[in-house]
Amino acid sequence: MFTGIIEQLGTITAIENKDTNVTLTVKTPITHELKVDQSVSHSGVCLTVESISDDTYTVTAIAETLLKTNISQWKVGTVVNIERCLRFDGRLDGHIVQGHVDTVGKCTGYTAKNGSWEYVITIDEKFAPLIIEKGSISLNGISLTIFNVTKNSFTVAIIPFTYEHTNMHQLQLNDQVNIEFDMIGKYVNRMNSLK
């Protein structure tokens, strides 16, 4: 479980295809603090640390993960947002994030606002019931508040700190982003669909 508050950036240093899986080698300043079998969020995707060597570690994404995320577009040099799992002796500064990506969205709008930045993200209409005005969402693992909600899009505003300390400053028009909808909203939607 995560909070959507990014700790560090990581860089993909190697990619290896193994059957239907992809093993990624990641370099980040907090590698020395990680342990094998630990869950780490990589741009919103929860992956398990398999091995650690000096300042890099490896994780593997299986077919289901590759299907639901933008990992297949990552290459050597891709910068990812890194967050270690939530500790229950700290504050929950973001919102409850599982690291289980629901879908990918596309960046279809970008506006610099003289000190902040706004991004329009387009999604498949079937996910419309999971987004609400001023609701929480995880975008590439970042806990954000959404607004300007339509049937197939929403907008997020990025403050300078988030822009500088996450990979949002690299997001371009038509890039895919990993989306995890609010867990509570998903449960409520599911319960209502069963009535």
Task: Explain how this protein is built.
With 195 residues, this protein is mainly beta. It folds into 2 domains: 8-84, Elongation Factor Tu (Ef-tu), domain 3, CATH 2.40.30; 103-193, Elongation Factor Tu (Ef-tu), domain 3, CATH 2.40.30.20. Helix content is 12%, strand content 41%. It has 3 helices and 13 strands, in the order E-E-E-E-E-E-H-E-E-E-E-E-E-H-E-H. It has helices at 63-68, 160-165, 183-193, and strands at 8-18, 21-27, 39-42, 45-48, 51-53, 56-61, 79-84, 103-112, 117-122, 136-139, 142-147, 153-158, 176-181. A 7-stranded antiparallel sheet has the order 4-3-7-1-2-6-5. Strand 1 (8-18) and strand 2 form a beta hairpin.
Number of DSSP helical runs: 3
Structural class: mainly beta
What is the number of E strands? 13
User: How far apart are the termini?
Assistant: 29 Å
Q: What's the order of the H and E elements?
A: EEEEEEHEEEEEEHEH
Unreliable residue stretches = none
Count of folded domains? 2
Blueprint of the fold:
Blueprint lengths: L7 E11 L2 E7 L11 E4 L2 E4 L2 E3 L2 E6 L1 H6 L10 E6 L18 E10 L4 E6 L13 E4 L2 E6 L5 E6 L1 H6 L10 E6 L1 H11 L2
Antiparallel strand pairs: 1-2, 1-7, 2-6, 3-4, 3-7, 5-6, 8-9, 8-13, 9-12, 10-11, 10-13, 11-12
Function: Catalyzes the dismutation of two molecules of 6,7-dimethyl-8-ribityllumazine, resulting in the formation of riboflavin and 5-amino-6-(D-ribitylamino)uracil.
Catalytic activity: 2 6,7-dimethyl-8-(1-D-ribityl)lumazine + H(+) = 5-amino-6-(D-ribitylamino)uracil + riboflavin
Pathway: Cofactor biosynthesis; riboflavin biosynthesis; riboflavin from 2-hydroxy-3-oxobutyl phosphate and 5-amino-6-(D-ribitylamino)uracil: step 2/2
